[in-house]
Amino acid sequence: MSITRIARHAARQMLQIPGFLVKVPAGFPSPAEDYMDNALDLNEHLIKHPAATFYCRVSGDSMLNAGIFDGDLLIVDRSVEPVHGSVVLAAINGEITCKTLDVHARQLRSANNQYPPIPIHDGADFSVEGVVIYSIRDHHYRAG
C-alpha cells in the first residue's frame, strides 16, 4: 500500500451543505423533504485540529477489512495520540504506510490477511506520522 500526501488542511470559509435531521434509511425510501435540517459544515464535523490535519490518498488493498480502499482520501490528524488499535500513517525504515498499530505485539497490522504484520524492531527508524480520523470514498459510478 502506498500513500500520496495531498495537502495540509487549510482553514476556509464555512462550507454549508444541506443536511438531514434523521438518519437516511438504506432500505425502503422515505420522503426526504420532510426531514431537511439546517446547513452542515463538513469542516466542523471532520476537522478537529486544523493546524495538525493533512490529507493523503491511499493506494493498495492492505486495509480493505478496515474499510480503507484503493483511491480513498484519508484525513490524518497529527495531534491525536496513537493507541493500540489506532489506524495510523507510520514511517518505518524510510517507507510510509497505513496500518493498524499493535502496541502489545510491537507491530503494524494490515487489515487484509494477504499481508503479514510488519514488526517494529528495537532500533528501527519508526514514527507515527498521524492517526487516520476519516476516510472518504468516491461512490459515483462512471460507465467505462
Q: What are the salient characteristics of this protein?
A:
144 residues, mainly beta, Umud Fragment, subunit A, eight-stranded antiparallel β-sheet, two-stranded antiparallel ribbon, 1 helix, 10 strands, 3% helix
How would you describe this structure to a colleague?
The chain has a domain of 95 residues: Ribbon (Umud Fragment, subunit A). Helix content is 3%, strand content 42%. The protein has one helix and ten strands; from the N terminus they run βββαβββββββ. The strands form two sheets. Strands 1-4-5-10-6-7-8-9 form an eight-stranded antiparallel beta sheet, with no helix packed on it. A two-stranded antiparallel sheet has the order 2-3. Strand 8 and strand 9 form a beta hairpin. The relative contact order is 0.20. About 4% of the residues have low confidence.
Q: Which percent band covers the strand fraction?
A: 35-45%
- Mean pLDDT, to the nearest integer, reads 82
Largest sheet: 8 strands, antiparallel
Radius of gyration (Å): 18 Å
- The tally of strands reads 10
Could you give the order of the helices and strands? EEEHEEEEEEE
Query: Class by helix and strand content?
Result: mainly beta
State the end-to-end CA separation. 25 Å
Helix content: under 10%
CATH topology label of the domain at 2-9 and 50-136: Umud Fragment, subunit A
Strand order of the largest sheet: 1-4-5-10-6-7-8-9
Q: Regions with pLDDT < 50 over 5+ consecutive residues?
A: 17-22
Please, how many helices?
1
Q: In CATH terms, what is the architecture of the domain at 2-9 and 50-136?
A: Ribbon
CATH class of the domain at 2-9 and 50-136: Mainly Beta
CATH homologous superfamily identity of the domain at 2-9 and 50-136? Umud Fragment, subunit A
Shape: globular
